[in-house]
Design a protein that fits this description.
- The protein is built from 10 helices and 17 strands.
- By secondary structure, the protein is an alpha/beta fold.
- It folds into 2 domains: 6-108 and 299-313, ornithine cyclodeaminase, domain 1 (2-Layer Sandwich); 115-297, NAD(P)-binding Rossmann-like Domain (Rossmann fold, 3-Layer(aba) Sandwich).
- The protein is globular and about 60 Å long.
- It starts with 5 loop residues before the first strand and ends with a helix.
Amino acid sequence: MREVPILRGDEVRAALDMSSCIEACDRAFAAYATGGAELPGVIHLEVPESRGEIHVKAGHLHGFPYYAVKVASGFYGRDPAAIDGSVLVFDVRDGSPAAILLDGGYLTDVRTGAAGGVAAGHLARDEARVAAVVGTGIQARMQVAGLIAMRPSIEEVRVWGRRSERATVAAADVAAAHEGLGATAAPSIRDAVEGADVVITCTASTEPLVRAEWLAEGTHVTAVGSDGPGKQELDPEILRRADRLVVDSLDQCRRLGELQHALDVADRAVELGAICAGLEPGRTRSAELTVCDLTGVGVQDVAAANVVMQQLAR
């Protein structure tokens, strides 16, 4: 048996940029919507004594050279939370191991930000200028990176967090990462959200944080944090009022996403992949309120892993 390369965090970081990941994830969502992907159900494991959550996701994209299995964990009984992950990559020709990515969850971080970028590319207004970010963790940074990649018109980012000092640090990191971007910590969620063209939520909340009455017409909302039973960041009325309600996986969002709290409008939800594939429209009017509920699907991990492998082969 040939030796299987083990790639550490720095190597994966060097091989996975946001723009390439967005492009790959857009293709992956389209494949998922059109029968071009194999995607088993997600395995969830709870470690309640440590507030630990482990997700096992796998998938194969037809025509891609590698399939992948990912184990991602978040232990929220610590401060800060302990986030980790690894990806096993296999050759589709014979199932032989091609690489082990011991990246500390970096691939998950980037592909989640890339999914937000895909959503923004199809659903946010071209002229969007102001973004609000609810949350101060790594996804606050990654979601802004994905958004900026697709909407370079963004000029201002307002960050809110339960701990103001973390919001200040997150805002400083965002500003430093994107030249010319103004980023500040907001004193309240309402102050962050009101008047924003794009609203991003990326917390582990189990209660609604963003209220429907704070959102202006034409706003796009990307909700990332709800990926398990009971999690919630949005007032369910936001989903009910949405002119365009989009999910990454209808079945998964019914069980794990914001949609679990607004099942009465589930029949209006459109999968993001159908929009990526051109089967459904994205935003059609400037005044539309658009919402994208992202729970994370395995095809994103496969797409990101293929980007890493292809970059390393060059």
